[in-house]
Amino acid sequence: MPNWRRWQAQLLDHLILIGGALVMTLPVYSIFAATTHEGGRVRPRLDLGSGTLENYGHFLQTGAGFSGDVTALSMMWNSFLLGAGFATLKVVLSLMTAYALIYFRVRFASAIFAVLLLTLLLPLESRFLPTYAVTVELGLVNTRAGLILPLVASGLGTLFFRQFLMTVPDALLESARIDGAGPLKFFKDILVPLSAPTAAALFLVMFVNGWNQYLWPVMVTSEESTYTLVRGMQFFGNSSLRGLMLAVLAFVPPALLVILFQRKVVKGLFDGSH
Q: What pLDDT is attached to residue 86?
């Protein structure tokens, strides 16, 4: 009897998981199915058409927009640069900031860290207007630097690296000092390798965050050569064939990253080890 109840509980758990997966994936599938049909304006549907390869092959290479120069491949490249550039700067600056706060005798280090944490309490959208004004003054509108640099101003990465570095034994620092290692060598040869799992996990999270940015690219880009995939969806329209195809293309890379590296992301962020 206990085995039967255990089997029932496991069956119920699996049914709930399968039902949740269907609820979450069905809208994505319906959008993909809609892009396999011809038509100017389309709607989500469940039946697959016969034009999958033709539609996507033509769309990836055909110019569109007012200039006729913007393609899906160029928008994917801009999205990749935004995600990779944002994630790289975030990881590097956060690790260096956390290292300085932990291992250097910085006056008011706790106050500085508290100010960094305050940035997490403010929604990103709440500082878009002053950030946009600064971007205009610096002449970064319609540039890739203008897409990437303002998004880096957040203390989330510093928080993760600081919490990890606080778990590093003090004996490592003392051993490095005995061996004659200076601050830079200690950072480069010891802390950076130890922080690699956390850095990799944070990079993946920030890459997906940068890839999915919508409101900031809409505000800071007006030239078609700087459009990202998500910005292109707004330009072509969410109910048009091109807009839905861009939605599918924008969904694929983050989904693959989450599926392939979800365990490493969770372990890197919360354990700081392999």
A: 93
